[in-house]
Amino acid sequence: MPHRSPTARAICAALLVLAGIEARAGAQPPQAAAPTRIGDALPPWTPGTLDIHQIATGRGNSALIVFPDGTALLVDAGGTAAEIPQSEPHPDGSRSPGEWIARYAKRHLADSAAGIDYAMLTHFHSDHIGAIADVARGVRIGTIIDRGFPDYAYPAPLEDPVSMAYRRFVEGERARGLVVERFRPGARDQIRLRRNAAAYPAVEVRNIIGNGEAWTGTGTATRQLFPTLASTPRPDWPNENMLSLGIRIAYGAFRFYTGGDLPGTGEPGFPAWHSAEALVAPLIGRVDVHVVNQHGSMGEETAPFQQALASPVVIIPSWAPSHPAPDVLKRMVESRLPPTERSIFATEMRDATKIVIGQRVSALAGPPGHVVVRVEPGGGRYWVMVLSNADESDRVVAVKGPFVAGAGR
Ligand SMILES: [Zn+2]
User: Fold this and answer.
1) What's the average pLDDT block by block, 10 residues per block, for the chain (409 residues)?
2) Cis, bond preceding 6 (omega within 30 deg of 0)
3) Coil, helix or strand for 385?
4) Which residue in 210, 244, 350, 374 could disulfide with 183, CB within 3.0 to 4.6 Å?
């Protein structure tokens, strides 16, 4: 397991200070009763608050969302094992990524015994589903939502080893009472508040896209963004990333989008619809915070995507040295599209990545770690906090905010 040298850490800290992006000690606390200061542990979730945690295990994507009534949603349970030697496990390699995710979730859920109500798995790659069995061993999961249930046959039978391991897990857990559902594009009642929905009518989870079928913005109507398989030569069929699930969460004026590994640009000579970001962007519309597609690893944050979402806060769910790719970060940092200021956070920033990115690393709004968006009751304002992932203390290492939700919309 690689370790950063003290010298590298010191240089990194100096760069952050020079760039003026060290922790903002003057930021207003999210809750008057539980002031957040640098070095303090994250104050616990309280009723009425929406918490979005992008968890940084260094080995895949996973986000925990705790809604204002305590309903909990896990988006992806990523966990590559040792097969990607370039990854650096956090807090360390003594546990599997799924164990770390389950432990993190239990520390931040409204009710750790009640567990996670929904786990939505965006697509069938190991950095998004590889840890689901370990997560489920550590914390109760009520319902799994994926893009393939029950036949796992679109666009062709999913029979690769990662998908097959997942399908066996699903089959076994269903026998023990786990509910599994296929994602319904356009729906706003598949992921809903399960504990006290009547108290929070301003919360909505809208299923935006899945398997290329996208919400049109009217009722629950959808349309297929890709041509039919029958009319498409097999080498041009949508790949696994293009079939990712995406949702938009609203709470009052606050909007958030997350959507797996939808690609930004297709390869030269491929059909135009392979540039999936451009197709889905207008259907998402403006948001306050979004998670960068495909870890920002190849061609994401295209102009149509930035233009439609116009997010003041952007989270890169990075975990490998190629996250983010230099061109993707450059497009975010040097964009002339609104908003005039983007606060960009990343869950991981490897030394190798910094070497490739160079000075542009100083454009990030905080150090890497767990990135937590905390939305105040009613959804009017929000803060972004970075928590240390060096251990399980959940110490706050950076705070930025308050941001006003819906500003500019
Ligand atoms: Zn991925």
Assistant:
1) 45 42 42 66 96 97 98 94 74 95 98 96 96 97 98 97 96 95 98 98 98 97 96 96 98 98 93 94 97 96 98 97 95 95 96 93 96 96 96 96 90
2) no
3) strand
4) 210
Alpha-carbon distance of 166 to 126, in angstroms, equals 9
Distance 306 CA to ligand 1 centre (A): 20
> Ligand 1 mean position to 294 CA, how many Å?
5
Distance CA 302, CA 328 (A): 8
What is the C-alpha separation between 115 and 221, in angstroms, rounded? Answer: 32
From the CA of 32, how far away is ligand 1's center (Å)? Answer: 37
Give the integer Cα–Cα distance in Å for 13 and 64: 28
The candidate with the shortest Cα–Cα distance to 96, out of 83, 111, 115, 114, is 83
**Strand ranges, E, within 69-202:** 72-75, 116-120, 141-146, 179-182
What's the rounded Cα separation, in Å, for the pair 78 and 81?
Answer: 10
Cα 201 to ligand 1 centroid, rounded to whole Å: 33
